[in-house]
Amino acid sequence: MYIIKLNAIDSTNSYLKDLVSAATQKDYTVVVAETQTKGRGQMGSQWQTECGKNLTASVFKRILSGKISDQFYISMVVALSIYKALRAFEIPKLSIKWPNDILSANTKLCGVLIENVIKSNHLQGSIIGFGLNVNQKTFTNLPQASSMQLVTGNTYNKDEVLSEILTQLERYFNLFELNYFDEIKSEYESLLFRKDKPSTFQTLNNQNFTGIIKGVTETGLLKVWTEDDIIKTFDLKEIKLLY
Ligand code: BTN
Questions:
Q1: Are 69 and 174 members of one domain?
Q2: Residue 147 CA, ligand 1 centroid: distance in Å
Q3: How many domains does the chain fold into?
Q4: What percent of the chain has pLDDT over 90?
Q5: Whose alpha carbon is nearest atom 11 of ligand 1?
Q6: What pLDDT does 13 receive?
Q7: Per-residue confidence (pLDDT) for residue 123, from 0 to 100
Q8: Do 91 and 75 share a domain, yes or no?
């Protein structure tokens, strides 16, 4: 484990991407920053964080003889690891919102951005970026966001939280490397936000429909049991879970 601590950087993911050459970089090289000037979120969004309050970090993990089809398993491994770390800090009402947001009740504590290093159709490594709201107390214009501190009233030591996340990442990546795929997928599915509950979704052309989340496919599509009594699958660009 090798941790690089920075004060400010554009994005820890971009910094780590420039640093790694997958063939040589050691596993669990970590970059942590107090703040990011161009933090990146999923689907081209921005990720904002209050300087010094939260964990904004990226971890490099080499994927041995990786297949492209492993990508969603890596995403599940990361979500499970952060979930388990937050559980160790007794954060209540945790769940994983597909594909890999970590929620407490219906507020978001952590977002994940994984960028893969792929060469000639093989997955060589992953840059696992996460933004975990730890001690931030106010979120302007982000009604769905919250932090560990807001949820429990306690202040947390960011180094301890990072260390627990790294411990869990090592544990779950070991399972992944030992091919415990079914176990990883079923544990992930058991922790999904709104699983087996009637929910409302919005399609790309702003149409709402109701359905029940039943799980995920191995490639990361969400399985929804719709009112026409069939299970349909959707990717992240196709639908948004409203409530
Ligand atoms: C999301 O949209 O929910 C994903 C947010 C991911 C943010 C983290 S913060 C550390 C790392 N560096 C980035 O630029 N983004 C990720």
A1: yes
A2: 15
A3: 2
A4: 87
A5: 129
A6: 97
A7: 84
A8: yes
Atom of ligand 1 minimally distant from the CA of 42: 2
Range of the domain at 78: 2-190
Same domain, 116 and 236: no
Tens of pLDDT, residues 213-237 = 999 999 999 999 999 999 999 999 9
Same domain, 133 and 227: no
Distance CA(113)–CA(13), nearest Å, equals 8
Ligand 1 site-directed mutation target among 31, 38, 47, most atoms within 8 Å of CB: 47
What ligand 1 atom has the least distance to the C-alpha of 110?
3
Domain end point (choices 190, 216, 232): 190
Quote the pTM value.
0.96
Q: Note the pLDDT of residue 117.
A: 87
Are 14 and 53 found together in one domain?
yes
CA of 167 to the centre of ligand 1 (A): 20
Q: Is 47 in the pocket of ligand 1 (CB under 6 A)?
A: yes
Q: Is the ipTM of this complex over 0.90?
A: yes
At 108, which CATH number?
3.30.930.10
Q: How far is the centre of ligand 1, averaged over its atoms, from the C-alpha of 217 (Å)?
A: 24
Q: Which residue has the CA at smallest separation from atom 9 of ligand 1? A: 131
Which residue has the CA at smallest separation from atom 3 of ligand 1? Answer: 111
Domain end point (choices 174, 190, 206) = 190
The terminus-to-terminus CA distance of the chain in angstroms comes to 39
